[in-house]
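Case 172 in the screening queue. Each case pairs one protein sequence with one candidate compound; here the compound is FE2/S2 (inorganic) cluster. For every case the pipeline is the same: read the inputs, emit a complex structure as tokens, and attach any notable structural observations.

Predict complex for case 172.
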Amino acid sequence: MRIARKKVSNQTAEMPEVDLSLINPLVEKYRDKKGNLIPVLQGVQGIYGYIPKLAFQKLNEDMGLRLSDMYGVATFYAQFRLSPVGKHIIKVCHGTACHVQSASKITDALEKELGIKDGHTTEDNLFTLESVACLGCCSLAPVMMIGDETFGSLNAKKAARVIKDIRRKEAL
Ligand code: FES
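Case 172 output:
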């Protein structure tokens, strides 16, 4: 599932302040390089965790990349995000092996624990919850990943406990 855009109430929230100078090395690296569109967008997302609206404008001005091309690619590929995500991205696998092992119960438990729906980000920007296809470790089904860490053989209780542990560490 693509991560849903958070509902925002004003222009400032729609376009959060970002330090666009962070993009300069990417501009230098990829300026005038053939096939630079996807690597540049990946680079921008690597910096901010998503592709800010203002970054599209900067790339247009500094590199001559067309806005329509950039938006086309960024909205076509699921890897790209157009809105901010939480510090911890929780990927719950809903591939076949995890599906038959009740992955939906994991998502339900996480939605309850986090107080958000699948595809959304918590108000404190700590967590984003998303459903994904096979994570490649089916023998551990049902599985979720948070950052680089994999949690397998889950049940609703275990999944909720993982979130509580992260919250506790974040509060220290
Ligand atoms: S189906 Fe979930 S890890 Fe493969």
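Case 172 observations:
- The chain is about 45% helix and 10% strand.
- The first helix runs from residue 11 to 14.
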